[in-house]
Each structure stands twice: as structure tokens, then as C-alpha cells.
Amino acid sequence: MTPTMTPIVDSRIRERARSAVPLSCAFLILIWGLAGASAFAEDAHAEAGFPDEEDWPEMDLEARIAAVSDGELRFVGPERAAATHRHVNRIRIGAESLREGWIELTQCHENLDAVGAAQIIFSVERIRGLEVVSAQGIGRAWVEGPSVQLTDIAPGARLCIRAESRAMFALGDGRYRLRNGPYMRRFLDGYYPMQVVLDVSYPADRLALVHHQPATQPGFAVRAGSGHVAVDAAFEGRLFTCLDFCETGSSDCELAITDCAE
Fold first, then answer.
1. Angle at 178 between CA 172 and CA 183, to 5 degrees
2. pLDDT at residue 22, rounded to an integer
3. Three-class SS of residue 22?
4. What are the b/e assignments for 157-182, b being 16+ CB within 10 Å?
């Protein structure tokens, strides 16, 4: 894994392999760097009738494992993602971002899993000025190095943090890419539905959005205007997003765009 981008959301229960562990154990939310490419798969589980997560305490470990996605990306409908972990990112790209790659990031996690302890971890090379803005339904939240530590997380808890993230990359020929991911919500060896929102502002006098990945489809919506892009995703598995920009007046904006997985 190459630590080059933020964010990743990887919620997993720490446990011994194949052993039954109560849901009150610690979750780990990782926000660090790029991993392997995600792949889109047809929604093979659309009619599977997955149990609600509140029913988990009555299920054995094998049944829990059988109820989750294997990590391949599947966009889902609003009924599948309702009341799940919602991850909201507000990103500001400034003129300095084009020179140095640093963007301003405010990140809020809503409907956090109710566990005794969790941590949000960033790549040390790609984060600076990390601070907790607000915490609701959380016993304690504090910054520790490139991470945010959480304890005593209640149902429906919400956390907002702020930082600068080195997330903007020059592709050459007047083009730039904002690449995020993979986003994921993971338990044991499976992946559960989650929601991701990106709210991106950029200097409209300098840049124009020319391409985005994935393509618009049910479960992945992109709304673009001058100086602003909004992305809403509901999915299970691992999601990468790429927003590609071109400098205003550039003659090379129609050049082939590299795949987001590369």
C-alpha cells in the first residue's frame, strides 16, 4: 500500500481469526493511502435478503460472514444504505493546491458504529494541522499523531475533523486530479453498505471539471457547476473516486484520461 491519498474508511472489528467477538470490541477506521484498484461488479446480492445489522447479536459468526459483500464494488439503492455510516467530505481546492497539492478538508462521520473504541488514521506524509472540530455521542475524541482516537461511541454518534490533505496531483498538460479512496466499511472479511458525500469547491477562473470516475449511475450521482462539484455515493465494497480538472484555456483538455485505478 502506497500512502499517497486520503481518505479511506475501513471500519473493522479487531478480533482473533475465526473467533466470535462481541460487537462492542474496537473498530478501526483507517484513512491513509491508496490501495489496490476497486472493481465494479453487478449487484449480485440485490435479492439476497440480507439481515439488518441490529439482528447480528442473534446470528452466529458464519451467518454474519455470509451476510456481507466480498469487497467488490456494488452501488446500492437508498433503502440499502439508509441509516448507515455516512461520510461527508468538504474539500476546498485553492490556487496554492495547484502548486503544492494541499487541499483544505473538513470531514464528518455520521452514524458511527456503536463500539467501545475506534481510531481514524491518516498517512503521516499526507496530513497536517489535524484537529477535532466537534464530537457528539462520543465519550472522548482526541488527536494523537496522524490519528484521531475515539472511545465510548454511542449509537448515532457524529464526529467532525479538520485538516489539510495533500490530495491534488498534477497530471501534466494543464490537468489535475483529485483522487480519493478506497472508501470502505469493513467487518471481519466482508464489507457493509455506507454513504459517501464529496462537496468540492475550486477556483472557476483557473479550472474546469472535464471528467469523473466512476461514471454517473444509480448509486453514484455527480452534480457539477462552475467552481463546485457534489458527489453522492451509496455502495458496498471498495470505492475510489477521481475528479479530473483542466486549466482554463488549455489546448490539451481532450487528451486521454488515465484510469482511476492506476
1. 140
2. 30
3. coil
4. bbbbbbbbbbbbeeeeebbbbbbbbb
pTM of the model: 0.73
121 closest CA partner among 212, 59, 29: 29
Of the candidate ranges 34-43, 85-94, 252-261, the one whose mean pLDDT is the lowest: 34-43
CA atoms within 13 A on the CB side of 170: 11
| Coil, helix or strand at residue 12 | strand
3-state secondary structure (DSSP) of residue 1: coil
CA distance 224 to 232: 12
Task: Quote the CA–CA distance of 177 and 165 in Å, as a whole number.
Answer: 14
6: three-class secondary structure by DSSP? coil
Ranges 76-85, 149-158, 210-219, 252-261: which has the least confidence: 252-261
Amino acid identity of residue 100, one-letter, is E
Q: Which three cell numbers stand for residue 187?
A: 467487518
Q: How far apart are alpha carbons 115 and 137 in whole angstroms?
A: 11
Q: What is the pLDDT of residue 59?
A: 47
Cell numbers representing residue 233 in the block: 455515493
Q: Are 209 and 243 in contact (CB under 8 A)?
A: yes
| Residue position matching grid coordinates 455516512 | 86
CB atoms within 10 A of CB 199: 15
**How far apart (Å, rounded) are the C-alpha atoms in residues 5 and 233?**
19
